[in-house]
Amino acid sequence: MEKWIVLLIFTGTIFYAAVASSGDDVENKGAEIILLSGGEKMRDVHFPHHRHQDALGDCNICHDLFPKKIGSIDELKNQGKLKKKQVMQEHCIDCHKKMKAADRATGPTSCGRCHRKTG
What we know:
The protein contains 5 helices and 2 strands. It is mainly α.
């Protein structure tokens, strides 16, 4: 069963790459991978920014909560305008769970899949 899932994901990725290379994909802006702070006890998270742009097609899905600016999440948390885990819990995980429920390919639905403890 697991082999079939891997094969399905691989086939979907190849199909997606072929469609994306046709020139009809979203124009990617910003870094391909963004390094997000993992906090004091966790390693930083490598966020696949372009993959999210391609999958969502609308930057405002994420950027309605924080501006398109390097360090904006940490800056807003330091100002008290964002709670410590607000972005990850209310945006990332919720979105991934909705996509999973809709039987769409998605990212992790638990914190530990992206955040790794230091040391």
